[in-house]
Amino acid sequence: MKAIIIGAGMGGATAGIALQNMGCRVEIYESVREIKPVGAAISIWPNGVKCLNFIGLQQQIKTLGGNMAAMAYRDYRTGETLTQFSLRPLVERVGEYPYPVARAELQSLLLDALGRERISLGKRLVELEDDGRQVTAWFEDGSSASGDLLIGADGAHSVVRGYVLGHTVERRFAGYVNWNGLIAAENGLAPADQWTTFVGQGKRVSLMPVAGGRFYFFFDVPLPQGLRQRSDTAKEDLRGYFAGWCAPVQRLIDRLEPAGVNRVEIHDIDPLEQLVRGRVALLGDAGHSSTPDIGQGGCAAMEDAIVLANLLRTHSLGIEDTLRRYQESRRQRVGSLVLKARKRCDVTHGKDPAATEDWYRSLARETGEHIIDGLADTIEGGPL
Predict the structure, then answer these.
(1) For residue 216, which of 195, 233, 230 has the smallest C-alpha distance?
(2) Is residue 244 part of a domain?
(3) CA-CA-CA-CA dihedral for 75, 77, 80, 84, to nearest 10
(4) Quick check: helix, strand or coil at residue 208?
(5) Cα(173)–Cα(268) distance, rounded to whole angstroms?
(6) Residue-wise pLDDT tens for the chain (384 aa)?
(7) The domain containing residue 342 runs over which residues?
(8) How far is C-alpha 353 from the chain's CA centre?
(9) Which of 132, 169, 189, 54 shows the shortest CA–CA distance to 323?
């Protein structure tokens, strides 16, 4: 069996490894001429970690992952702790640790495990054809590739999605802008083994530990779409949005290097009923682009990869039959994650100010059990 994968990001690379492990021939085609990670870091929750374990990267992800032993929310003005609790009960309940990781390091790990020779760069997809026996992809440079199936792992702006659905899908602006990056950890910002989030005014400032004595940081601000803001004005912009916030937030802003700050307008797409057409399947953001508010975008893509590989390994009624089973296995799961992230996004970022204020008040009463229940419910919905 030969699989053509469009997109060499986290989902495409994981799918490539999983399919290779079951004996499938894999070719990956990526539109960019140089692979660069999108964003500074990512939280791999235990359902995603289990997927990496499944494809043989158990020790490697432990090395790359940060020690996120606890979680805390703090008041935006005073810096006082609203709630703080250990994540050990979550680990014991779901059977694995969460690992925040730098995206560049995770991507390098996946590409090395896959074999970089499997990837062809500068291949922008322009057309697909499925003749019932094989799928052929044509690229902008005039070249083509054929295989028994094709996996569209080409991200939120997916070309393959248009083929599967027969129409384009508009992305929905989620109502906020995110600034993110990596910075050296120091106790004046937050404990080095804790995910710390400052909340207030419908905004967030978050610090999450990654390996190498670093924090992944992000700032969220509810803003209109399309503002003319540049990376070299990030510090000034953030000082304005977070004026009056507590000392650790001001210290974080002061330490930023504008060249190391990413600015992203956050979008998602409505859940799709269709993830498959014939011998073509969508995977990851191509099929279920979500906001990052529950940290499941990358994890869901890895789940897709494992489910698809296992179904191809264990079913013998043909590729089209297997892909339909993949669709039925994943549609409800990924749709629920998109909507759960959207709901959390709206509460966190003040879409209904009263609901957001209720959330702030609830954090002051939180012992950790309610949050851990929510995390575990999401994690335990995965295939492993």
Answers:
(1) 195
(2) no
(3) 20
(4) strand
(5) 7
(6) 999 999 999 999 999 999 999 999 999 999 998 887 677 899 999 999 999 999 999 999 999 999 999 999 999 999 999 999 999 999 999 999 999 999 999 999 999 999 999 999 999 999 999 999 999 999 999 999 999 999 999 999 999 999 999 999 999 999 999 999 999 998 889 999 999 999 999 999 999 999 999 999 999 999 999 998 887 899 999 999 999 999 999 999 999 998 899 999 999 999 999 999 999 999 999 999 999 999 999 999 999 999 999 999 999 999 999 999 999 999 999 999 999 999 999 999 999 999 999 999 999 999 999 999 999 999 999 998
(7) 2-171+268-379
(8) 27
(9) 132
Residue 118 maps to a domain: yes
- Here the CATH number for the domain that contains residue 126 is 3.50.50.60
CA angle, 103 as apex, 124 and 172 as ends, to 5°? 60
pTM (two decimals)? 0.94
Distances 139 to 31, 125, 136 between C-alpha atoms, Å: 9, 4, 10
370: number of CA atoms within 13 Å, CB side?
9
**What is the bridge-based pairing of β-strands 276-277 and 280-282?**
antiparallel
Q: State which H helix or E strand residue 235 sits in.
A: helix 234-241
**Distance, CA of 296 to CA of 52 (rounded, Å):** 14
- Pairing state between β 203-210 and 194-200: antiparallel
Write the Ramachandran bin of 344: left for phi over 0, alpha for psi from -120 to 50, otherwise beta.
alpha
Residues 6+ apart with CB under 8 A from 316: none
Residues 6+ positions from 105 with CB-CB distance below 8 Å? 64, 211
Q: Is residue 316 assigned to a domain?
A: yes
Query: Would you say residue 261 lies in a domain?
Result: no
Q: Kindly write down the DSSP assignment for every residue of 4-36, as one continuous string.
A: EEE--SHHHHHHHHHHHHTT-EEEEE-SSSS--
Which H, E and C letters describe 103-120, residue by residue?
HHHHHHHHHHHHCHHHEE
Question: What token pair was written down for 333?
Answer: 């799961």
Alpha-carbon separation of residue 102 from 69, 116, 214, 355, 368 (angstroms): 17, 19, 9, 33, 26
Domain count, the chain: 1
